[in-house]
Amino acid sequence: MFKKILIANRGEIALRIIRTAKEMGIKTVAVYSTADKESLHVRFADEAVCIGPPPSPLSYLNMPNIIAAAEITNADAIHPGYGFLSENAKFSEICRSHGIKFIGASPEMINSMGDKASAKDTMKKSGVPVIPGSDGLISSAEEGIELAKDIGYPVIIKATAGGGGRGMRIIWADEEFEKNWDSARQEAKAAFGNDGIYMEKYVEEPRHIEIQLAGDQYGNVCHLSERDCSIQRRHQKLLEESPSPFITAELREKMGAAAVAGAKSIKYEGLGTIEFLVDKHHNFYFMEMNTRIQVEHPVTEEVINYDLVKEQILIAAGVPISGKNYYPTKHAIECRINAEDPYNNFRPTPGKIEVLHKPGGHGVRVDTHIYAGYTIPSNYDSMIAKMIVSAQTREEAIIKMERALGEFIIEGPGLKTTIPLHVKLMQNEDFKKGNFTTAFMNTFDINK
Questions:
Q1: Are residues 196 and 258 in the same domain?
Q2: What is the bridge-based pairing of β-strands 47-52 and 27-33?
Q3: If we measure between CA atoms, which residue out of 247, 229, 334, 245 comes closest to residue 290?
Q4: Residues contacting 441, CB < 8 A, separation 6+
Q5: Do the beta carbons of residue 205 and residue 283 sit within 8 Å?
């Protein structure tokens, strides 16, 4: 087992990893930018090393500084959390070359799944259903228009190195293609340093359903059931739940088996997630694979009663998994709480928190790094907390979430959060009935 783990991340996920590592008797090292000097992950880790100024490229994406921090503290493993370097093949390779275990996917796995066009081809060969689209990247708008005529509009073009909705455009007709092609490539180049674009048939009225997976170095792979991530805005997830109100037991078995087959085909090791689009007829299609722990992993933890961060560390240390699939024993919902104004086009609202009260009660969990007196920096993602509730039924979970959100108080000068948005969601009749798709937020009005 590892003696010391460096956490190459910040915020609630860094704190989450520190807590599990300590329970396993493993020493922890926090790295931080100067903007995060007063953060809780810095305070609660056994050691802490400053790795640079606030901008991410100079700190949390600064590979030489992070490796140096691991070496001077004698850390024998690095946990990247999610985001930042968690799916960076080069960083995974650098860790390996320095004799430091990367608690995540190997460079080979990241490369095979990180490029979405090649990942789609890999999954197709293993028998996983894929959305009709281009065979690899498209080289020009003219090529894309010809292919779109064969596939049929609407189509969606995506950055092959993308994520979070960047480098992604929905196109409904030939005349819209070129301007969307140009803007998507420019956005992808700026965000990822790669302007490669591929194309798929756009699935209308889809659900975004993902299957949580675990695989070990001995060839064992299992699934931990599904999460429904359909409530999203501009391809950014706002709320996740498990089990999905849309998925039947039969479909769960089919999707789980397909995800396991896909992971086995690449001999996947670690925690990962295969994401699917599911149409209104219950046809499902591979979308992408995330070779890391997900933001929404607590939803799965609550419904199967298992510490996924602990599992991730054990797998990295060479401990075999049981190989059995897990299924939900109750219902869980997670709301992402962002420092954004939902009444003002989700404008970020960084600043000092003067009053904080976190909700409690049976089945209520808050994963966060904030505290009264904490200043939310403007340099990073605006998510400041995750509220997770669990109950025996979905109806009970919705009632519990609305009650808990009413107790969650975060106040400070100019500070707004997405808590009011989530309250309205819990009160929405279509949400309560499970009548929603990935387009739900396009027409949702917080003022109603």
A1: no
A2: parallel
A3: 229
A4: 231, 232, 233, 238
A5: no
* Residue 33 in tokens: 């930018």
pLDDT over 80 at 355, yes or no: yes
Q: What is the bridge-based pairing of β-strands 221-233 and 236-242?
A: antiparallel
Catalytic-labelled residue, pool 227, 292, 336, 394: 292
Rounded to whole angstroms, the Cα distance separating 169 from 333 reads 29
- What is the 3-state secondary structure of 201-244? ECCCCCEEEEEEEEECCCCCEEEEEEEEEEEEECCEEEEEEECC
Query: Which domain does 325 fall in, by range?
Result: 207-443
- Strand ordering across the sheet containing 221-233: 284-290, 270-278, 207-215, 221-233, 236-242, 331-338, 383-391, 364-368
- Burial profile 180-200: b = 16 or more Cβ within 10 angstroms, e = fewer: bbeebbebbeebbeebbbbbb
- What separation, in Å, do the N-terminal and C-terminal C-alpha atoms of the chain show? 53
Find the helix or strand (DSSP H, E) in which 32 lies. strand 27-33
Summarize pLDDT for 184-241 with one digit per residue, the tens: 999 999 888 899 999 999 988 899 999 999 999 999 999 999 999 999 998 899 999 9
- CB of 192 closer than 8 Å to CB of 159: yes
- Judgement on whether residues 182 and 281 belong to the same structural domain of the protein: no
Cβ-in-10-Å burial (0-12, 13-18, 19+) of 414 comes to exposed
Domain check: are 193 and 268 in the same one?
no
What confidence tens digit (pLDDT) does each residue in 388-436 have? 999 999 999 999 999 999 999 999 999 999 999 999 999 999 999 999 9
Residue 16 annotated in active site: no
146: alpha, beta or left? (left if phi > 0; alpha if psi -120 to 50) = alpha
| Residue among 352, 341, 348, 337 at smallest CA distance from 404 | 337
Average pLDDT over residues 32-46: 97
Q: Which whole number is the average pLDDT over 162-169? A: 82
Q: Does residue 124 lie in a domain region?
A: no
